[in-house]
Structure to design on (131 residues):
């Protein structure tokens, strides 16, 4: 059940970030993650670049670690997915990526839920790509 929700959040966040539309995911991510996304989007905009992500499928999603802390629970999930990622310049030319190449990408995301909070939703608190 948790992994099903985590996969849904992964796809939502991936698409929102790619489109530069963070409002729909602001309640799904921590302030730290949201600020990092905003900084990346600002840099992209400053360089007149746009991003496109075509999410194909998950090859794997697996809980790698669970930590029970004093006030929260953290769950680390490894996602292996197939995606086509492009970066385009102001003229629409592809400057990074290949429209015909499906990449296998491994992401490690950490979700956290406060134990005694009124809102017991899981929040994305960390993202990283691995080789």
């Amino acid at each position: 059940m948790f992994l099903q929700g985590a996969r849904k959040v992964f796809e939502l966040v991936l698409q929102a970030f790619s489109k530069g539309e963070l409002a729909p995911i602001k309640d799904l991510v921590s302030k730290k993650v949201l600020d990092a996304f905003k900084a990346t989007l600002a840099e992209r905009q400053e360089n007149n670049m746009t991003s496109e992500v075509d999410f194909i499928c998950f090859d794997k999603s697996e809980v790698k670690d669970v930590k029970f802390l004093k006030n929260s629970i953290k769950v680390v999930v490894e996602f292996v997915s197939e995606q086509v990622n492009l970066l385009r310049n102001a003229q629409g030319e592809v400057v990074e990526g290949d429209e015909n190449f499906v990449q296998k990408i491994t992401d490690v995301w950490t979700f956290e839920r406060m134990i005694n909070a009124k809102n017991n939703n899981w929040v994305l608190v960390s993202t990283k790509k691995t080789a």
